[in-house]
Structure formats: C-alpha cells, structure tokens
C-alpha cells in the first residue's frame, strides 16, 4: 500500500514511529476489536511529545474516534500497547481504568452535566480539594477560557461556543496528561469554528497541554496540529507535519483527502515521466515503460488563454478568493486549476496549461488505488 | 467485552437475570401446566367452554374495535382539522374516559340502563309503559361500556398522526384540484393507517384482558372464565389452559400494535413541521360538532362523574366514610407503594443494562419484563398463585404474593418511562465523569442517578396509581379480609349498592387523573 517516501525514503517515518517510551503518549501496534458501531483499527503506532498538538485525520468511519476512546480507556485493545507518561495503560491483558489515567476529554457534543451549573461542572472532579481551593481554581479556569461571570449559568443557557469552553475548562482544570478532543468544532457554525480554532490553539500553547485532536476536516487539522496522523479504513496512512502531508503525500488517498488533487496517468521512458501535461522527473526511479500516476494540485496549474489551444475550460466555480476551473484535456481527462478571483474565463475558452513541476508527486500505478470521490 | 467491565457489571447482570427469571418463571409454570394437562381436560374444555368463550371474546373485540374506530378517528379529525369555540378544551377532555376504570363505568351503566333505571324511565315516557330497552348485562352493554372506555386510545394515536403528518401531502392533493372530502379519503386516511391500526390493536388488547366490566356485566369472555375457573371451581389446570389461549391471543395484538407503531414513524417524519390549516364552519356546523363531542364525553365521563359525586354526597354514602373506609384506602396505598417500589427497583437494572450494554442477553431480559403486557390480571394472579402453591406454600395468602403479581403485571408501565429516561442520557456523560477521576459507583451516584430521577419518579407514580385501581389479581390473591378500594367498588356494585360504592369509585377516578396526565403528556408533546 505505502510506496517508498519520495524524498526522505523511510527514515523519517521510522524515526517518528518508534521513539522510546519517554514520550507523553505512545501507541505501539495497537489494534482494536471490532464492535458493532465502532470501526476496527489495525496496527496503529505513533507517539506524542510533551506539549505537542497531534491530529488524527480521516473520513468518518476510519476509526479515529476508536483510537481516541482506546487512549481514554473506553475501548479495549486486541493487540499492542498504549503508554501514558511511560506507564503501560492498555494491552490485551491489562487495562487501567479511565479514572486512573488522568486524561482529559472533550466530547463532540461537549457532554456538560445538564443538572449542574457551570462552576459545578468545572469543579466536578475536584472533590478532593478544599472549598476555597476549588473556588480559586474554577475562577482561574473561567478567566483562562474567557467566561468570567458565567459561573452560575446552567449548560442549556449557554451558546455552543460557550459550552465548548466550559467543557475545555472542566478537562484542563484536572491538569490532564493528555487532552483528547473529539471533533471539537463540528457542532459550531463555520464562523464560530474559525474563531474557536484560533482561541483553542493559543490556549493549548499557553498551557503547554499535550493534545490529541480528532477531525475529518483537513483545514482544521492544518490550522491546529504540529503533526497529523492520516487514517483510512482503520490503518495509519501517514504521520507527519501538515506541510509534508500536503506537499509530499505518501499515498493517493492522503493526497486526495487533504486537498483537491488530480491524478494524471503517465509512462516512464528515458528517465522521465511522460504525461499529457508534459514531462516530470522520475522521483520513484521507475523502470522504463512502467505506468505511473502524477498527482497535481490545482494551485500548481496555471492557465493561459491561447487561441488554438487543444484544452478548454469546462466550468468555473467562483470561491471568493479564487476561481476553481475544471479544464478538459484533449484525451477527455479533466484537471483542476485555481486562479485569482479576477481572472475570469468563459466556458469553452481554449487554454494552455503550465504546470509547476517541482510540486508534483509520483505514485506507482499499482499503488494508486482509486482515490475516494 | 472487556474483562474489567465485565467485573464491574456482573452483579447488575445477576440482578437483571434474576428479575427476568422472576417474571418468566410463573409464566413458564402456567404454560407447562397447561401443556402437560390431561388431554381429557383439553377435550372437555374444547367441547364445552372454549368455542363459546372464544366467539364471545372475538365478537366483543370486533364490535368495540369498529365503534372505537369511528369515534376515535372522527373526534381526532375534528379537533385537528376544524376550528370551533373551545376546541382546545375538547381536545384535552377527550382523553378523560381513560381515567375511568372499566368496572366503574360498567357499574354506572348497569344502574343507568338497568331494570327501572333512568334511561328505561325516559324511554317509557316516549314509547309507553310496557317498553323495554336492552339489558346492560349483555353483549350490547359490554360493547357500549368498553367502547366508551377505550376509544381515547384510537383518538390519541390518530390525533398525533394527524398533527405530525406532513401537511404538504394534503396540499399537493388539493393543488391537483381534488376536493377536501376526496383528499381525506385518498390521502389523509391512508397516511393515518399505521397509527389507527396501532390504536385498534391497543383497544383489542385492552378488551381481551379486561376483567372489571365483563365481570360486572356478566359477559363470558376468556379473561372472566379464567377467574371463574379459579374461584368457582378451583380448577387451576383448566384456568391455565384458558390462560394460554388468552396469552396467545393477546400476544398477536401486542405484536400488531408494536409493528404498526413502528411503521407509523415512516409516515410522519418527513419535511419541516407546519401546523395544518383548520377549517371553520357556520353556526350550524359548530353546534353539530359541539353536540357530537358533548354527547361522547358526557356519556363516557361527565355523566358518570356527576353520578359518582352526587352519590358520594348522599347520606348513605357519607355514613360509609368511617375508619373502615380509611382502612381500605390505607390497604390500597400500602400495596401500591410496595408494588411501585419493587417495580422500579427491578426495572432499573433491566432498563440500564439494555440501554448501556445491548447484548442479546440483556435485551432478552428486558423483553421478558414486558411479558406482563400480555398477562391479563387474572392470568398474572394465576401464574403467581400456581408457582407459589408449588414452591413456597408458606407465603401463600400473604401480601407478598399479591405484590409479586402486581410487579409482574405493571412492570411494563414502569419500564416505559424508565427506558426513555436512560436513553436520553448520552453515555458520554458517564464517560466524561470517568475521565474526571470518578469510579463506576461514584459516576452512578453523581451523574446517572440525578439525571434519571424524573423518569424514576414518573415510573413509580405510574405503577402506584395503576396498582391502586387493580381489581382481578387483588380479588384472587388478597389475604382474607384484606380489602382495597377497588375491591369495595366491585363488591358493592355486584350487590347493586350503587351509592355505597360511589366514594371509593370517585377516589379511584380522581387518583387516575394524574396518571392520565403523565401517560398522555409524552404523546401530547411529541405531536
């Protein structure tokens, strides 16, 4: 499934996957049993450093929430181990109960206790402290998340964004070893989600909280994460920084999932890859005559309207800051190109295509399982 | 699934299994007794009683079903599709007959229609002194009483179908130029079919398992026959055989009801909700509608309630309100409180496990607990009695036997409010408490219990109030001389001491009202 890494080979991947157990969180070859309603995950390994924000990204049903729940101790593992602060917490024959793991969790729908006020929600896990200490801690947290004056409200009297901040405060006040966030922005309207994303990022940085965030939205993952683990069908496809994931995806799935991409078939001859869009360097060192696929992102294709050109504009989608064009090549293959919002070409306009060859990624034909559409 | 979770839930699992066992054991015992009975008993029953009992039961169910269909659907249509003065008042009043136990309504109608009663008097003024009307103690009388008592089931389900139905269906039909009447036949009624069918199945279930009305009106149905076999002949084997038939019969309609209720959802939840347009009629139409609804509610609730109040105020009745009366009240309350407490304590683990760990075993235990639904009062009593005579004869004749029978009989009513209460709390709330450092027990105390408190209380109140008016099981299993309000009503009414029965009956009706509010409010809001 995974081809060799086009630039760094396998070394980068290896280094990240098998670090010593000193990291805050480590998963070693974790598989979870199939349970009705929970997708299975197979052989997942990754580790999070202190203070790092790590994102599990994948389509719904890929098992990312299952991993989160396994870390929290809600799901048993069938094989492999999970370590928190160097301690084994999950393995097939050992399972530390959730309450002894010191993980914080914010659920998709926040799960605020509806029968308790904001202050009681935040102080819920602080029973062991004195009243006065509890009060100070709650006030500190409220200030941190910007909800002073809301302590006597009930959850149903808060907006979605406020509820989320209370849930966050409730988790952070325990000083969790890791904070687990399950689709934290999916219940907010897009405007609010954007603002909360920024606020949450600042907050996590300030408190130096190690965080695992689950999302299906690559924009969210790019904006928040130090590193991203892309998952598909319960398997880890790639674990890397957002930039690497976007520019050097390891599989066609990753390439397609983290942004718009076109896949152009080509063949290798004389050390170059020949396609309808021109020649590209043979980064995979393929044999002559081998069939390959070139991934090109819309922002790497530039359109020049030219009389008599063999390609023509199929459709235009206005997106505010850009125009996304679908262009039909002579063979009937369709590729996409992103142009400035002021360059408007009508349907049928003949265009030349200029491709920034340095940004393309090559996949072997055998590896290119049809990208999901 | 995990070793840890299994350790923590296994005591609960045991409790649930034991509860399911407690419920299924008597039922199984009765079944085995019926199946293992001497074939001679079977053939004797087939030759003598069963054909008559079956045909009586089927005829009564059929006639009540068709009449309730007419009353229920027409009243539901009027209050949802027509605008007239006092509409909302009528809308609520139409469920009131459900607060009237069948034996109370039966006893009032045996006075009203009885020999020398007020209706006969009125009829004789019109038709001459020799004129007679039908006797209430007949097929017609039973049909009338059961219809008036059960049509609100059809009304309630039809009403919510009419309210939650997507109005666009009707509008599309009108836009195609089809008249209002034709739209009703072509679009509205077909869309209501699953709800109406569910309501009718409920009515039939109720008629088949009723004991109060048929015993006072002396109309021989299967349920009444089970009672007679047990009391008159002390023939528990024959009673078991009849019970088996009855349970089979009831099961068919219970499944029918479930199936149609499930299907009715597909007809309702499409598109955004918009309240239907209500048509207005002239003064003649309004008068006719008001007269029609007034006649139904008057006959089913107002007139009976008026009679009960005036009888209760009579000096004869007042004289019965003494320490003995309060003794009956105390007995009723004590039994009902025990049954309600037992019911929720048994119901809670069952409902909890079924909603949190829906394995086949747990769901099976929950379904077993719903068995009480198909057990008419006398059958529940018979089941507990037979088991107790064989296994624990030393508790026979004690209050305990009676309470066990109540719990089996009314557990479904409690479960119906416990189950949604548990389903409404997302498991995330419990999980988040665990991440905040709480153990399983603490989570249960500080999160789950406070959140299900309302459902818990409603379940308790429902079982309490239903037990207060329970008649057949109490008659069969009570300790000697241990009378309740319901027993007093039934005994005085059997002897035609109408006035003496009134205070107890009135009290039972009044206590039925809050239960009615609890039962109806869910359907009401959902619509």
How are the secondary structure elements laid out?
The complex is a heterodimer of chains A (373) and B (527).
Chain A: H1 11-17, E1 25-32, E2 41-48, E3 53-57, H2 64-72, E4 77-84, E5 87-91, E6 94-95, E7 103-106, H3 118-122, H4 131-144, H5 160-172, E8 178-182, H6 190-207, E9 211-215, H7 218-224, E10 227-232, E11 235-240, H8 242-247, H9 252-257, E12 262-269, E13 272-275, E14 278-281, E15 291-296, E16 301-305, E17 311-318, E18 322-328, E19 334-340, E20 350-355, E21 361-364
Chain B: H1 3-35, H2 39-47, H3 50-81, E1 82-83, H4 87-93, H5 102-112, H6 118-127, H7 139-164, H8 167-175, H9 180-209, H10 212-216, H11 222-231, H12 236-264, E2 279-280, H13 283-313, H14 315-320, H15 323-356, H16 360-369, H17 377-391, H18 399-424, H19 427-435, H20 440-468, H21 472-477, H22 485-494, H23 498-526
Parallel strand pairs in B: 1-2
Helix pairs in contact in B: 1-12, 1-15, 1-16, 1-17, 3-7, 3-9, 5-7, 7-9, 7-23, 8-9, 9-12, 11-12, 11-17, 12-17, 13-23, 15-16, 15-18, 15-20, 17-18, 18-20, 19-20, 20-23, 22-23
